[in-house]
Write a structure and sequence with these properties.
Blueprint (H helix, E strand, L loop, with lengths): L3 E6 L3 H12 L3 E7 L3 H7 L9 H6 L3 E4 L6 H10 L3 E4 L7 H14 L3 E3 L7 H11 L6 E10 L21 H17 L3 E8 L9 E7 L4 E8 L6 E8 L3 E5 L3 E5 L5 E3 L8 H17 L9 H15 L2
């Protein structure tokens, strides 16, 4: 099978993770990488082909993975399109709706393979939930909810990404909540914001509380998310049905109500481990897309739909 030549722009926390993932995947050869930070480049210089400019990355590959903060996505998408290079871009698509509309039009008119890295496009937890919803096993969908608590933001392993703490392009509703808006959209159709409350410790800082009422097409969708208080980190996405309810706990664990209405684990194929299985499945989908076959990866159009919801929330 064909090996695809990939380059990475951005070597922060997520970009570094995918250096490892691309090197582990037999369908990809990591050709070049670059980051605006010389310190980040130095961490990989001894093992990878760290080049001088992002243009050098694109020139050395057939598909570029864009793993920089969202305000810079448009710049590198435009460069990739000009070079006729396929695109795999981190989420969120952007922070400016008009700019994201422009790059969506640019990408779609180019005909180049393109996708956004929302993990629930491939994660076994989301695939199993989607299968059961599509098969009607939950019955009529009554409600959808996403509840999240983070002890701190940014989290300790994100400390170097200081932009995440700011309101301009950071915040957990963009970085984490958007995954779950995508999932609701993928499962049930267009998500629309009805009303919300957003709280920030200071106007220039990221949110620490969001309560939102949305509509996911088939059912009401409620979000209650907060950070900065005592407790354990917890992320729970629940779909309640007339016959059975299901939930995804902490990204990769699936539970469903049994005959007594008690939550019980659902066994899914997630070898070797849940996070790595999701990353592996995402890159399987990327290889399939680059082969020219049908794939399950999130599209730029889907990502723009998510961005409209998230930026609508943050405008309040």
């Amino acid at each position: 099978m064909k090996t695809h030549r990939v380059g990475i722009i951005g070597l922060g926390t997520v970009g570094a993770r995918f250096v490892e993932q691309f090197n582990l995947h037999e369908r990809f050869e990591l050709m070049a990488c670059w980051d605006a930070s010389s310190e980040a480049n130095d961490r990989f210089r001894s093992t990878e082909n760290v080049v001088e400019t992002p243009e050098d990355v694109i020139a050395n590959c057939d598909v570029v993975y864009i793993a920089v903060p969202p305000a810079a996505h448009a710049t590198y998408v435009e460069q990739a399109v000009a070079a006729k290079c396929a695109i795999f871009c981190e989420k969120p698509l952007g922070v400016d709706i008009e700019e994201s509309e422009h790059i969506l039009q640019l990408v779609e008119s180019s005909g180049l393979p393109s996708a956004i890295n929302y993990v629930f496009g491939s994660a076994p937890s989301a695939v199993e939930l989607g299968r059961r919803v599509s098969a009607g096993e939950l019955g009529d969908i009554v409600s959808v909810e996403f509840m999240m608590h983070l002890t701190e933001w940014p989290r300790a392993w994100q400390a170097a990404a200081t932009w995440l703490a700011g309101a301009a392009e950071g915040g957990w509703i963009r970085e984490v909540g958007s995954h779950y808006v995508f999932l609701a959209q993928r499962l049930f159709g267009e998500v629309a914001l009805e009303h919300c409350l957003v709280r920030r410790p200071e106007t220039h800082l990221a949110e620490n509380l969001v309560t939102a009422q949305l509509n996911s097409g088939k059912a009401p969708f409620t979000m209650h998310c907060e950070s900065g208080s005592a407790g354990i980190d917890s992320l729970v996405f629940t779909v309640r049905g007339s016959q059975q309810s299901m939930r995804i706990v902490d990204w990769y664990n699936v539970e469903a109500t049994n005959s007594e209405g008690v939550w019980a684990p659902v066994e899914i194929d997630a070898s070797p481990s849940a996070p790595w299985a999701a990353y592996r499945a995402q890159l399987d989908g990327l290889a399939t897309m680059l082969d020219g076959d049908d794939h399950h990866l999130p599209t730029f159009a889907e990502a723009l739909g998510v961005q409209r919801v998230i930026e609508g929330v943050l405008a309040n």
